User: Fold histidine kinase from Methylocella tundrae.
Amino acid sequence: MRPALLSISLAGAFERPRSWWRGFWRKLIQILPQGLYARSALIVIAPMVILQCVLTYVFMERHWQQVTNRLSTVLTQDIAALIDLHQTFPGTDDNLMRIAQERLRIDAEFLPKGPLPPALPKPFFSIVDAALSNEIRRQISRPFWLDTVGRSNLIEIRIQLDDAILRVVAYRSAAYASNSYIFLLWMVGTSFVLIVVATLFLRNQIKPILSLAGAAEEFGKGRDPEFRPLGAREVRRAGFAFIEMKRRIERAIEQRTTMLNGVSHDLRTVLTRFKLSLALMGDGEEAQELQKDVAEMQRMLEAYLAFARGAAGESAVKIDMIEFLEELRFDAERDGFDVAIAYSGDPMVALRPDAFKRCLANLIGNAENHAKHVAVEALRDKRFLTIHVDDDGPGIPAKFREDVFRPFFRIDEARNQDIGGTGLGLAIALDIARSHGGDITLSESFMGGLRATVRVPV
Assistant:
């Protein structure tokens, strides 16, 4: 075989067990619990229970094996004594059977001489069978037949003598010490105690982690969580790091808001001077063109500041979404548009109302600029508030649906060339949705145009 072919075959031979092992681990991971609490409980409880089972089985089985051997030795000694008396004192078989029943608690009888029954198959658990067989061979050294399976609580032994066959029936407890129920009780009891202790311990350890996760989730939704680090040293360290990160983010937002307020005041002052100067110039053609430019500049300035400001300084409050959507519909009617509204689910939702209104107003306004009919459908379930804004306009090609969320990106040629804008409407809407911990996606609408879907956690 060529070296290249040999290397390929060896690589394939090693790759097969590796791929099987990877597949096995994937299936095992799918079966194992996914939660931290369940995984921690499994990590703590499983080794303890397995170790307890092994130790209990090894030591208890060894102890009861010794007890079984001793009981088998005593029973065999009694049978050997009966055989010796039968051979030493002929004609006393009736007395021997009576003594065996009254004193030794075994039923013994002497059968006529003949062949022994055929050997029976060995039982699966052959502890008593092996112990009795070894003792009979060692103490009596005669052909024998043994039945430890036929009747569950009895043992039958037949031993071939010179002039007869000794048949002995004894209780199983006389030769075997059963420990199954003791083993089960011990395992169930100790496992229950271990599970209870581990559950109580893990619950106290997992609770601070869940509290930290909840605080981070609340902060991601734009709310102000009440959080105090608790638990183990590492968990408290993560909690203090989260609090410090929260303070830095809030300080950065506050500084940005202060800066934007200053910039907004200064620029609005300059625009006001422009307006006053244009008012003093009269109503000439040049003044009218300048007034249009100033108005356009003011509109663009407001859009830029709205995008940069985001939802800073506003707290989340419970609002009635039905009334909230009705206000948006009324605003659209005042602008001359007809917007259909539908809502289902619990109407009370915690949001930043002004910011979220700006988000939906931007989406509805974007639809109104490029379509004749607009429909808004909202659904509240246990985890999310989902709002669909559908229109019958030209839509947006799939290749541009990610790009339109970039600031200042415009595809007027794909929508309506008569409509201008700053290219910030969808960017502002996405920024507000993400500040609530949600997102916005674009897809095809059942009305033939564009569907904008806002999904935020509740």
